[in-house]
Design a protein that fits this description.
single chain; 152 residues; mainly alpha; Serine Threonine Protein Phosphatase 5, Tetratricopeptide repeat; 8 helices
């Protein structure tokens, strides 16, 4: 019987255990909240074509925190491509668009949302970032239509 040194195997096993412990230590903060991962790390993650909807959602929320509202709206829209009824993504996208100050993009999104979930429009238009748009006639008409559809 041939006897081999156990030292290399022991070193590899120890390194594997250490790497696993580090991963477990850092995993709860990264997976459990957006605070555990940086915007730069998220930007790397979303370049993967297999990036999950959850990754895109965390990315959108982080962009909103950084006040990059136009980019946040695009990230929320990416979430909505796979989950169009996602309430958090719809509200986040609408809020981000409102905060960009672009009434045309905000109205186009809200008009689309009228087809999907009219009750949500009433909630969004009641938010502080959306109230400046209510002075425009087209937003008043949108609010009226959303109210009428939500009664059905």
């Amino acid at each position: 019987m041939i006897q081999c040194s156990r030292k290399p195997a022991s070193v590899i096993l120890l390194a594997t255990i250490l790497a696993g412990a580090i991963c477990l230590w850092e995993a709860p903060s990264a997976a459990g909240s957006a605070d555990g991962i940086t915007l730069a790390q998220l930007e790397v993650l979303i370049t993967d074509p297999e990036a999950t909807t959850e990754t895109w959602m965390v990315y959108a929320q982080r962009l909103s925190q950084e006040k990059r509202f136009s980019h946040a709206a695009m990230a929320y829209q990416r979430v909505l491509e796979t989950d169009p009824y996602n309430r958090i993504a719809n509200v986040g996208c609408a809020s981000s668009l409102a905060l960009t100050g672009d009434p045309e993009r905000f109205f186009a999104f809200m008009n689309h949302l009228l087809l999907i979930e009219p009750r949500l429009i009433l909630d969004i238009l009641g938010r502080p970032e959306a109230t400046p748009f209510l002075a425009a006639e087209k937003f008043q008409a949108l609010k009226t239509e959303a109210f009428a559809q939500s009664l059905d």
